[in-house]
Design goal:
The complex is a heterodimer of chains A (about 325) and B (about 400).
Chain A: E1 2-7, E2 17-29, E3 37-48, E4 53-64, H1 85-92, E5 97-101, E6 107-108, E7 123-127, E8 131-140, E9 151-158, E10 163-168, E11 181-190, E12 193-200, H2 209-215, E13 219-224, H3 227-236, H4 247-252, H5 262-275, E14 284-289, E15 298-305, E16 311-318, E17 321-329
Antiparallel strand pairs in A: 1-4, 1-14, 2-3, 3-4, 5-6, 5-7, 8-9, 8-11, 9-10, 11-12, 13-15, 14-17, 15-16, 16-17
Chain B: E1 10-17, H1 28-42, E2 52-56, H2 63-70, E3 77-81, H3 88-100, E4 106-114, H4 131-140, H5 147-162, H6 166-180, H7 195-200, E5 203-206, E6 208-209, E7 218-227, H8 228-232, E8 239-247, H9 267-280, E9 289-291, H10 297-306, H11 315-320, H12 337-340, H13 347-358, E10 370-374, E11 381-387
Parallel strand pairs in B: 2-3, 2-4, 9-10
Antiparallel strand pairs in B: 1-7, 1-8, 4-7, 5-6, 8-11, 10-11
The chains are: A mainly beta (about 325), B alpha/beta (about 400).
Chain lengths: ~325, ~400
C-alpha cells in the first residue's frame, strides 16, 4: 500500500474541510515480484468551505491473486559458530569487525580458525572503519525480507583490504557502479536481525560513522508505541476498523493484536519533516507501508536529508523490520 | 615429483542415458538403474562385470541399492565426488585412479536425478551446518542465495574488466540452442533461439537473463570405464582418457570464491587446464570439439580463457569470429549442452564427447580425434580430454 499526500495550503484553526473520493485507476500489475496483482488507486480531494483545494490524498492499495502470490525471499538466518561468533557479537554492537591473527597480525575474512599465513590458532579482531568501494554487484528483482524489491547485493572492498558481501541500500539500483564509495550502516532487516549494510557516500567525502551521519543530517528518534497511542490515533483519524482497537477482532484478521492505522503512522512520519525544519505548507509526502505496528513496538524513526535540504527520507523500523518509509518534499507542490 | 598420469591407459567403452524430461514419473533409483543398464549393454558387458561405481555426493541412489537392483553382485570400489556439477569429470578421474591402482576393472560413473520434478538446485535450500555451508551463509544472509546469483557476481566484474556485454553471453546460449535444435534427444529439440529472444528474456539476477541460465531436467547418464587390454577387445571404439583433472584454487569457496584478488578469471579451471595439457601432452589447438559446462553463459567465456583457447578477457572476440560453430575452430556443445540438451550435471557432455569420437553424434563433425569435456565452474571443477585411435 502507498499514500501520497500533497498540501495546497496549510490548515489553520477553524478550517472546515470536506473530502470527496474518486476511484482514480484500476491497473493490472504483471511485473510485481510476488506475482500478478491489481492496483486500486483512490484519490481524495479536500476542499474548504470556499471550495478552495486544501490537499490531495492519493492512495494505492495492491491486491494479489492469493493463488499466485510468490513468497518473499526470506534471508537465511546467520549460522553462528565457534569461528565467527565474535563477528556477530560485533554486529549487535553496531561494529563491523575483521578477524586478525593474534600472532602475525594478518586480517582475514570470512573468519576461519587458523591463520593461513602463520598457522596460528589465536585470533583477535579489529573494528573496521566501515568505508569501502563496490567490487562487483548483482541486482535481484525478487523481494527480500527487510529490503523489498529490487535489491542489490555487492562485494565490498573494505579500506582495510578485506572483501565482504552485503546489500547496498538507499540508492536506485540503476545508479550502482563498480568502484562506488560506500559506508557501512546497521539496519534491522527482520525480527531480531540486524545486519551491516552499505550505502553510497558522496565522492570525495571522508567522514567516519557518527560524524558522517551528523553531517548528512541523519537523526534517529525512538518511540515506544503503546496500545493507547494506537486506539487514540485511530479514533482521531475516524477509523473504526476493529483492527485498531479490538484485539480479538484484530486476531481474526490475521494480525498479532491491534495495530496502528495508516493515517496515524503517516502523521508520526510527517512530524519528522516538521522537526527537520521543512516548510510543509504545500509540501508532499510519499509513503509506503510495511510491517504492522503493534502495541509495545520499539519504533526507531530515522530521518535524513536527501539530495537537498528540501527533501528528507524517513524510515520507521523496529526489530520486526521496516514499518514505513517515506519521501517528504517541502513546498514545491503545485 | 608428482607421478605421471596414465594417459591413454584407460578408456570409456560404454555410454547410456534415460530420456531427458521435466518430469520422469519414476524414482531416481530407477533412472540410475536404467542409464547404467544402457551403458553396460552399450559396452557389450553384463552388470555382473561391473566392480566399481562412482557418483556425486549429491546423488540419492546408493551404490549398494544399485548393485542389488541391477544384479551387479560384488563391488570392490566406490567413491563420490563433491561440489555438484563440478564433479562430473572427476567421476571419470576416480575411475581411472581406481583402475590404475588395481582396485577395480570395470567402473561405472553415473548421475541420475529428478532435478526438475523433485528437489531443484536453482532454488535456495535449507542447509545443515558444515564448514562450507557456514561459509556460504556470508552470502545467503544478504539474499545472494542461488547458483545464478553467485554466477552473476562473477559476470558483472568480468563485464566491467573486459568490456563484455550481455550480447556476448547471449552468443553462447544461441550456439548451444542451435545445436540442441537438431538433436532429437534434446529437451529444446527444434527450438532454437535468437539473440533478440535472449535479450528479451526476463532477468533472473542482473546481469543474467533467463536464457543465460541452463534448464533444469530429470534424467540419468552413465559412463563405463575400463583398462586398455579389456577396452581393446570390446565392440565400441574406445574413447581413450588422455587427461582427467580435478582442481580447486587458492581461496576457493563453494560457489562464492570472491576473495581472490581477480574474480573475473576462473581460478579453478586454470588449475584444471594446466593439468590437462601436461597430462596429455596436447595443446588447445589440438582439440577438435569442446563440451564445456554451460550452466551460466558468462562462465563459458571464462572457461575458454582459463583453458588457454584465447587470452584472458578475449573470449568474446574468439566467439564473434565463429569459433564455436560446427564448422568453427572449436565446435561447442554439439549436443546442445546443459542449456539445450539437458541439465544432467555435465555427465551428458561426457557422453557426447564419446559419440563424436565414435562418429555417432547427431551433429557429427567431419574429423574428430580429440574431445575436451569440462564440468561446472565457479565451484571446484574437473575436466577430461578423450582421444580416438
Amino acid at each position: 500500500m502507498s499514500l501520497g499526500l500533497t498540501w495546497s495550503r496549510a490548515l489553520t484553526f477553524g478550517d472546515v474541510v470536506q473530502g470527496s473520493c474518486t476511484l482514480a485507476a484500476v491497473d493490472a500489475v504483471d511485473g510485481a515480484p510476488q506475482g500478478p496483482a491489481i492496483d486500486i488507486c483512490v484519490k481524495t480531494e479536500f476542499h474548504d468551505l470556499n471550495g478552495e483545494r486544501v490537499a490531495i490524498l492519493q492512495e494505492v492499495r495492491r491486491f494479489f491473486d492469493l493463488a499466485k502470490v510468490k513468497p518473499l525471499v526470506s534471508r537465511a538466518a546467520p549460522m553462528v559458530g565457534h569461528d565467527n561468533a565474535f563477528w556477530w557479537e560485533g554486529v549487535a554492537r553496531r561494529e563491523l569487525r575483521i578477524q586478525q591473527c593474534a600472532d602475525c597480525g594478518q586480517l582475514r575474512h570470512p573468519p576461519r580458525p587458523m591463520c593461513p599465513q602463520c598457522r596460528s590458532l589465536h585470533w583477535a579482531h579489529i573494528a573496521a572503519s566501515g568505508r569501502g568501494t563496490i567490487h562487483s554487484y548483482t541486482v535481484h528483482h525478487t523481494s527480500l525480507e527487510g529490503l523489498g524489491s529490487p535489491y542489490v547485493v555487492a562485494l565490498i572492498d573494505l579500506e582495510e583490504g578485506n572483501r565482504l558481501i552485503s546489500n547496498v541500500i538507499d540508492v536506485d539500483h540503476r545508479e550502482v557502479r563498480i568502484g562506488m564509495p560506500v559506508q557501512v550502516t546497521f539496519h534491522h532487516v527482520g525480527p531480531a536481525q540486524m545486519l551491516p549494510l552499505f550505502r553510497p557516500v558522496a565522492a570525495g567525502a571522508s567522514l567516519d560513522g557518527a560524524a558522517a551521519a551528523a553531517e548528512a543530517g541523519t537523526s534517529v528518534t525512538d518511540v515506544e508505541v503503546t496500545a493507547t497511542d494506537i486506539v487514540v490515533g485511530a479514533l482521531r483519524a475516524g477509523n473504526a476498523d476493529p483492527a485498531h482497537h479490538d484485539g480479538k477482532a484484530a486476531g481474526a484478521q490475521g494480525l498479532r493484536g491491534i495495530c496502528m492505522d495508516a493515517v496515524t503512522t503517516a502523521a508520526l512520519i510527517e512530524a519528522q519533516a516538521w522537526q527537520a525544519g521543512l516548510d510543509m505548507q504545500r509540501g508532499a509526502i510519499d509513503i509506503r507501508f510495511g510491517e504492522p505496528i503493534y502495541a509495545g513496538t520499539a519504533l526507531q524513526l530515522t530521518r535524513e536529508f536527501g539530495g537537498s535540504h528540501r527533501m528528507i527520507t524517513c524510515r520507521a523500523t523496529s526489530a520486526a523490520g521496516l514499518h514505513a518509509q517515506a519521501t517528504i518534499t517541502e513546498g514545491s507542490a503545485p | 615429483m608428482k607421478p605421471k598420469f596414465p594417459s591413454n591407459e584407460t578408456a570409456i567403452v560404454g555410454i547410456g542415458a534415460t530420456e531427458f524430461s521435466k518430469n520422469s514419473g519414476r524414482s531416481e533409483l530407477q533412472l540410475a538403474c536404467e542409464c547404467i543398464k544402457a551403458a553396460v549393454e552399450d559396452a557389450g558387458l553384463e552388470p555382473s562385470d561391473v566392480d566399481g561405481l562412482v557418483t556425486f555426493t549429491l546423488d540419492n541412489s546408493a551404490e549398494i541399492d544399485l548393485s542389488r537392483s541391477l544384479g551387479i553382485g560384488d563391488l570392490s570400489y566406490f567413491a563420490r565426488t563433491p561440489y555438484g556439477g563440478g564433479g562430473a569429470c572427476a567421476t571419470v578421474a576416480h575411475a581411472v585412479a581406481a583402475i590404475h591402482a588395481g582396485l577395480a576393472e570395470v567402473v561405472v560413473c553415473y548421475r541420475a536425478f529428478n532435478e526438475r520434478s523433485g528437489v531443484r538446485f536453482g532454488q535456495p535450500v535449507a542447509v545443515r551446518p558444515s564448514s562450507d555451508s557456514i561459509n556460504m551463509n556470508w552470502a545467503t544472509v544478504y539474499g545472494l542465495n542461488t547458483a545464478a546469483s553467485f554466477a552473476a557476481m562473477f559476470a558483472r566484474r568480468y563485464m566491467h574488466d573486459y568490456g563484455a556485454t550481455s550480447l556476448d553471453f547471449g552468443a553462447v546460449a544461441v550456439t548451444s540452442r542451435k545445436h540442441a535444435a537438431t538433436n532429437p534427444a534434446a529437451w529444446f529439440y527444434q527450438r532454437p533461439i535468437t539473440l533478440e529472444d535472449h535479450q528479451k528474456s526476463r532477468w533472473i539476477v542482473e546481469p543474467l537473463h533467463l536464457l543465460d541460465c541452463c534448464q533444469e531436467s530429470d534424467g540419468g547418464v552413465a559412463i563405463v570405464v575400463t583398462h586398455k587390454e579389456r577396452a581393446r577387445s570390446m565392440r565400441n571404439a574406445p574413447a581413450w582418457i588422455s587427461a582427467a583433472a580435478i582442481g580447486s584454487c587458492s581461496e576457493q569457496e563453494l560457489m562464492t570464491t570472491y576473495n581472490r584478488p581477480d574474480i573475473a578469471v576462473s581460478g579453478e579451471m586454470q588449475v584444471v587446464g594446466r593439468q590437462l595439457w601436461s597430462q596429455s601432452g596436447l595443446r588447445p589447438r589440438d582439440m577438435d570439439v569442446a563440451q564445456l559446462y554451460d550452466h551460466f553463459t558468462p562462465l563459458v567465456l571464462q572457461q575458454l580463457e582459463a583453458l588457454e583457447f584465447c587470452d584472458i578477457g578475449q573470449a568474446r572476440h574468439f566467439i564473434a569470429d565463429g569459433a564455436l560453430e560446427l564448422d568453427g575452430a572449436l565446435p561447442l556443445n554439439t549436443h546442445g549442452g546443459q542449456l539445450g540438451e539437458a541439465y544432467i550435471h555435465g555427465m551428458n557432455g561426457i557422453a557426447e564427447a564419446v559419440r563424436q569420437l565414435r562418429g555417432t553424434a547427431v551433429n557429427q563433425l567431419a574429423d574428430c580425434r580429440h574431445a575436451l569435456v569440462t564440468a561446472g565452474t565457479a565451484v571446484p571443477t574437473s575436466a577430461l580430454i578423450l582421444t580416438k585411435d
